[in-house]
Amino acid sequence: MENITLETKSKSEFWDTKTQGKKEVWDALKVISETDSLELANAIISSLNLTIAHTNYHQEFKVWDEYGDEYIVPAWVYAPSKLQDEKVTSLAFIARDPNALLKVRLSTGAPDVNVHCHTQDPVFSIIQQVLNNSQDKNITVKLFYFGKLLEVHKKIIDVLPKVADEEIIIQAMILKKL
């Protein structure tokens, strides 16, 4: 009984100490972690335009809001039912073979990053590859194409319709996190 009390206190402390990002996203993630309704979880994710990471849900649940802010909820915060594979499969992206190659030009002047992606994946998959390629883990990436900010939750094909026809160069603004 004592372990349950400590775990509950730790979960409460986790939610109470979240200060970076938007409060409404953290509140929504808390609701998702406490519900057994997959429909409710998916509705919340859709309504807030959250992008879900390709990740191991047994370790963490990672999402990004439409501005590219990252939110990570460790698995120990979830009720045990959240860790059952059949409950989370519809929240994961479908694994696809890459069908496009993009060049990402970095604002830091570092060499371009070649990104292999699938046109049906969200723009955030490009950001994730740029972050994985960077040695500095304390950065945020904003992507632009012809001066227009790319929305991270939209599909690549919707914001870059000619991906397969020509070489596409995307500009990446690299910003230090505060």
In short:
The chain is α+β, with helices and mostly antiparallel strands and 178 residues long. The protein has helices at 2-16, 23-34, 38-47, 85-88, 124-133, 156-159; strands spanning 51-52, 60-64, 70-74, 100-106, 113-117, 139-145, 148-149, 168-176.
Distance between the termini: 40 Å
Strand tally is: 8
What is the helix tally? 6
The gross shape turns out to be: globular
Spatial order of strands in the largest sheet: 5-4-8-6-7
Mean pLDDT: 75
Uncertain regions spanning at least 5 consecutive residues: 1-8, 80-94
Report the sheet with the most strands, covering strand number, pairing sense and barrel closure. Answer: 5 strands, mixed
Describe this protein's structure.
Mean pLDDT is 75; it is low at 1-8 and 80-94. The protein has a five-stranded mixed beta sheet, with helices on one face. Helix 2 runs antiparallel to helix 3 (38-47). It is built from six helices and eight strands; from the N terminus they run H-H-H-E-E-E-H-E-E-H-E-E-H-E. The radius of gyration is 18 Å and the shape is globular. The chain folds into two domains: 2-91, no CATH class; 100-176, Phosphatidylinositol 3-kinase Catalytic Subunit, Chain A, domain 1 (Ubiquitin-like (UB roll), Roll), CATH 3.10.20.90. It has helices at residues 2-16, 23-34, 38-47, 85-88, 124-133, 156-159, and strands spanning 51-52, 60-64, 70-74, 100-106, 113-117, 139-145, 148-149, 168-176. Helix content is 31%, strand content 24%. By secondary structure, the protein is an alpha+beta fold.
